[in-house]
Structures are given as structure tokens and as C-alpha cells.
């Protein structure tokens, strides 16, 4: 969920969130990318629950990010 939250804030203009203090991607993809499972929305956030949906006009940006990182 860390990556989703940070990415969601980044596509809204907070681009500084895209790397941590060590210059790595934030969240689990910066720690153990081989074990990370990334997502834009899932059944708990936006697809069916609509509790924390990714901005609909930024979905392709979100996918571009997660598909080009470990």
C-alpha cells in the first residue's frame, strides 16, 4: 500500500515522493523489489469499494511507473 499511496500523491503533483532519502523507489519496491506486488487499485481500494481510488485521469501514468520499475 505504501507504493500506491506515494504514487497516487506523486501523480497529483508531489513528484518528490518518488524516491526516498537513499534515492530508491519508496515502499517495498525499493527494499525487496523481487518480492513486491504493485498495483494501482485493487478490490480493497478503488475497483469495487471506491474507498481510495487512483485518480482516473492518471491511471496510465501509474501503470507506466509500476511497469518500468523492479
From TrEMBL:
<protein>
    <recommendedName>
        <fullName>1,4-alpha-D-glucan glucanohydrolase</fullName>
    </recommendedName>
</protein>
<dbReference type="InterPro" id="IPR017853">
    <property type="entry name" value="GH"/>
</dbReference>
<comment type="similarity">
    <text>Belongs to the glycosyl hydrolase 13 family.</text>
</comment>
